[in-house]
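re: ur question from earlier - yeah i can do the single chain one, its not a big deal. heres the input i used so u can compare w yours
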Amino acid sequence: MFDNRISDLKKDLEKSWQKLDLDKKIEQRKALEQEVAEPEIWLNPENARTKNEDLAHLSEEIDPWIVIKSQISDINELLNLKDDSLNDELEEQISAIENELGKLKKSLRFTGKYDSANAILRITAGVGGTEAMDWAGMLERMYLRFCEKNNYKTTCLERVSGEEAGIKTGVYEISGNHAYGRLKSEHGVHRLVRLSPFNADNLRQTSFALVEILPVIKNDIDIKIDDKDLRIDVYHSGGHGGQSVNTTNSAVRITHLPTNTVVAIQNERSQLQNKEKAMEILRGKLAQMQQEQHTASIAELRAGESAKWGQQIRNYILQPYKLVKDTRTKYEETDPDSVLDGKIDGFIDAFLDFS
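and the output i got, formated as C-alpha cells:
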C-alpha cells in the first residue's frame, strides 16, 4: 500500500541530494564548525562574523534535508513492522513528508551563481514628487513584510525620506537562505495606477519606482576590480546618526570609472565600514551588469546604468479595477492589498518556473 510511495520518496530525495551536492556541503559545515570553535578566530571579529554567517547559511540549507532523510528512514522501519493498525499513522506521516519534500525541491531552482547569496535591495522613487515617493515607501513596506514573513534579516544601509510622504531612496541588506535567488525576480521598474491621495481633484495617477536587487559579493575571483578603476571620495554624513557620524568624514562614495557606476554609503559609523559595504554593493552592481550584458569579465562591461528605467516588470492597478500583473510571466493577483502586504511568493515562483 505504501511501498511505492516510500520508494518514490527515496528516489526523489537521492536525486535532490546529489543535485544539491549535500555531502560536500555537510563536509564544508564540519570544517566551518571547527573553525568557529577556535577562540583565536575572534582576534579578527569581521572574519569571525563572516564565518558564522556562512555556517548559518549552510545549516539553513542542509538541516531540512537531513530531517527529511531521517523521517523517511523512520517511516521505512514502521513499514517493515507490517502492522495494519499503523496504517492511519503511516498515511498521515507519508503525506506530510511528501508535502515537505515538494517544498524543499523548490530549492533546486536556485542554480544561479549567486542564488545562495544575501541580497541588496535598493528602491528609488521615480519622477512625480510626493506621489512617486509614497509609492516607493509602499514598496519598501511590501518587501520588509515579505522578509518578516520569511524570517529574513533586514539591515538598513541607507534611507532618505520624502518631504511629505514615503521615501526618495531606501537601501537594505537582506540575509537568509537563497535571499538573492528568491528576490532577483523583483529587479526592475514597478508601476502603480491609483486615485492620488495627494491630488485635490482625486485624479487617477501613474507612478513609477525602480527596484534593484543585487547579490552580496564579499569577495569573488570573478569580480576582480582594479584599484586604478576606482575613485573613492569621503565626505560628511548627513542626517541623524550621532556625533561621530555628523562630525567626521565617514560617508564614502565609490565610482567605478570604466562603467561610471556609483555607490555611496553613509550609514555605518566608520569610514572603513562604509567603504567595505560600498565595495560589496559595487561588486553586486557589476555582477548584475555582467549578467545583463552577457560579458565574460568586468573588463568587457559597457558604461551605463545596470538597472534601466525602461525595464518595467510589474503593474499594480488599484483603480478603476484591482489587479497586480507581471509583464514577463503574465502571472497576476486580484488582491493588491495582500500583495502590498508582502504576499509576493506567487510572483517569485512564477518567475523561477518561467526562467
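The chain has two domains: 3-109, 126-355. not sure if urs matches, ping me
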